[in-house]
């Protein structure tokens, strides 16, 4: 298994044989771990999902920053006021929807 041939030369001592056995066990253990990691599809899927969540979060943060910087200040102020009213209980979700719509329209109009 280790690829060493002992057909020529002196016979290995018991200590040398033990060392070879330990080395072979270590190599076999590493091989088993590598194969188990490849076969663990569930863990691979979790790892990929975590990676994709992280990428999506970064992208959302970047896009939020871009939208905020490109939105005119008066529109941002109105959106902030609408959000505050909604949090305070004085506004309906409709107010928040109107604020979001205003932001989207402002961004769209700046592109055209």
From TrEMBL:
> InterPro entries of this UniProt entry?
DUF3618 (IPR022062)
What keywords were assigned to this record?
Answer: Membrane, Transmembrane, Transmembrane helix
List, as start-end ranges, the regions of compositional bias called Basic and acidic residues: 56-68
**Where is the chain membrane-spanning?**
88-107
Report residue spans for region: Disordered: 1-20, 52-74
Question: How is this protein named in the record?
Answer: DUF3618 domain-containing protein
Q: Domain of life, per the record? A: Bacteria
